[in-house]
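JOB MANIFEST
job_type = single_chain_structure
chain_count = 1
residues = 538
[input]
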Amino acid sequence: MAESPLKKVACPSCGAPLLFGAGEITTRCQFCHAVVERPARADLPAVLRSKPAGPQRTYPASPFSPAVSFPGFNRLVLILGILIGVGVVLLVVLMSVSQSLPGLTLILNGPVALFPTDQPEGPDFISLSYDISGETYLFIRLNPVKGKVVWRGKKFKEISDVQTIVTREGRFFAVEGTDLLAYSAADGAEAWQAKLSDQLGYCEECLSVEGDRVIVLTRDYVIQAFDTETGTSAWQRRMDGYTEGFTIADGGLWVIDKVGGKFSLLFLNLEDGTVQRQITPECRSTESTQSNRLDSTSMFILDPAPSVRSSSRSVYLLYGYYPGCVDRWDASSATLVWQAEDDKGYSPSREFATLFTPDMFFLAYEDTLWSVTKAGGQIQVLAEGGDYELVPLALEQGTLIVRTKRTRGTQQFGLRGVDPAGRETLWEYAIENGEPFDPPDAAFGHVDDDRSIWLWRMIDGQLRLVVFQADPNQVTMVTIDPKDGSASGVETLAMDFDGDSYFGPKVLAWRDTVVWVVVDARLMAIDVSAVKVKYKFP
């Protein structure tokens, strides 16, 4: 068969097919306009495989296609081709880098939850983030130590779809509207979903996980428990009405609810919701027949804290008007240890600030501060009246450190040292234009030139004040001596936030001297002793 007059060859520059006419040594690519020589046939004599005689201009070959020559009038085409090729490469690189540096496309502006890991450098985090390029919200798992996004998970149209995230080993959970969903922590894949009777309640613990149960308190005052592995409904309890929330400790759930016409403090079994213990106290006046009982908003406090398992836990109840009582009960046996009456009363609507120490605990409401001994329930008023609201923070070196809020004139927060034995004020420390991160009176999370937000931490017997400031954007750290309130070691750490204000801080966790916070849509670990940013992501 006669050879075809056209010879098909692929362009070495762009890969497009080339057409050589019969007897043609060169041809021009119709796509990239490169001039390409016909490949020499190995079976032809060498003289026929040589280039045609005569001068021929050549130009440097493209780095993507060596051994290709270009006519002079196509120099501009070559340059444009190179620029386009470099642009494609940069796009690929940026897409790759964005997986390790999510700040290029992701903003952390939803709830962030610490995910427990055994790595010594720091934990991972599960977060709801905003994808700028995709204009959507999505779950991501962050590893700030390695500086990368481990995975990208489910997407949402609105940030309000997810208000809270809780984690446990291997899983994390979130409520989206009236749906409770479980996800795999390994890859973000959905594991199961269950229907709730209403949307999530407003309390901090309204979505909790303990053992093999996920516990949810919804806005219609129903407590619902689900199996963590399957999402199967384990039990539910319809509360009598409004409830302040619940506390989980020692494998059970403490909550106040009405039973038999009276409000009682109940200890519910997490597995099936049955009542294991019931405390129905009564506060009787020694001077009259009047008595008071629990209300749905009465306050109860566990000691030690629920995060510590204890076989000898106590539960303290504060309730009643006139009279008011403080009760100590043995949590394991539901028996009364002591009851102390106070003629000032403990209105159920009050939110007491509390501090527990080994021998006593402190209560504060507005301008009144009490101490109560754990052994016998002796109540002493340490401060009352005056122009300051008080919140006990710590007892260190014999000094009770109290947060103050001036209520007469311009509002100002500060610190005060009090002698818990003699009621004497030892020192005062004012914090100019500063608002506390912690409740009560927690600051709105926005720092500007008129508002700083401060945290505190006891480190090696000293109070460490951590103040986030703007214009200039920085964190100022002050060491305060509990004995006399003297400030020393004032140190400043510059923050490279854009603009003269920023959102934050949101404290996620403390680990020794390191605080993990979300500030200006960044996840940061700040070592307050070394005064340095240990991790920043992105």
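[summary]
Confidence is low (pLDDT under 50) at residues 1-8, 19-24, 40-104.
The helical segments are 46-49, 75-100.
exit_status = 0
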